[in-house]
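Appendix B. Chain record.
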Amino acid sequence: MAEDDSTGEVPKLPPDARLESLDERLDRLQQAEAKRTAKRQPDGNVQAGQLVLSQLVGCPLGGGIVGWVIDRFAGTKPWAMLVMLFLGFAVGVWNVIRISNEASRRARGEKD
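Structure tokens predicted for this chain:
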């Protein structure tokens, strides 16, 4: 450890060539990693498509599962499952419409 001088400041040590070399190599590796990961990022259309697909599959599936559970405990087989399944379809379509409206707003440059 460096000792304090009479002014209370720690004297600066001369730069070490090994540390500078390490910093340069680290910077080069970070830039190479940034380029590599940037190529892997899907574009906005792919992300929107994945989001739409997940809504159209997940909402009815989730509604059907919730309806099935209600049917098991309430003994209303198959009515709660059918109602929740169709409600899931409606929610999925509603979310797809919302996603497309947001995407068109962003394309026009409007703020949310």
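Further analysis of this model is presented in Appendix C.
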